């Protein structure tokens, strides 16, 4: 009897805590500022600048619908001296797991339009930035005029000058350089870099400066390089763990 009573009290306290947390969040419709805290916006969310804080223990704002950021730090690029702050992506693979578990301070569900969104945020839908953007995770379509970065890309990520994603599942492309830690799908750029990639890699130089650890699929470029190949290389010069050959190279065995 006492045990049942204790369990009932604990459950009551837990439900009460959840209810209080729910009550703290505010719901706004049809227009509100995405810079507000503990707000769920349905409709149009607008504001200036974004939040790059990476150690939040809750999602500060959820934008459901259309989010517009007309002014951001990306405009600093025009000075040719200062650049915008970006998400502090982990440099070491040992830090990736802890980073992936971090709670984004903003979640955008729908369409995000900006001159540049640099925020520790997850986007589920479409995000378009005229200049540059730096986000935690993108699920959908991510387009930027100059540069685009993400920790995890699930979908399509394209930028004019350079784009990077530590983990990419889908398409990542740029006119100049692309950088992927682990990817699967299609990688297109003038200078492509990857540590591990499965799929198709198309560029002028593929892993030339730093040879990729593993590549499975098809590499097409002027120069192709990888330490461990399971597939085919097509280019002027192709190098893998077995041999270096012009025009075509291959390896399908360990």
From TrEMBL:
<protein>
    <submittedName>
        <fullName>Uncharacterized protein</fullName>
    </submittedName>
</protein>
<keyword id="KW-0732">Signal</keyword>
<feature type="signal peptide">
    <location>
        <begin position="1"/>
        <end position="19"/>
    </location>
</feature>
<dbReference type="InterPro" id="IPR058093">
    <property type="entry name" value="LA_2272-like"/>
</dbReference>
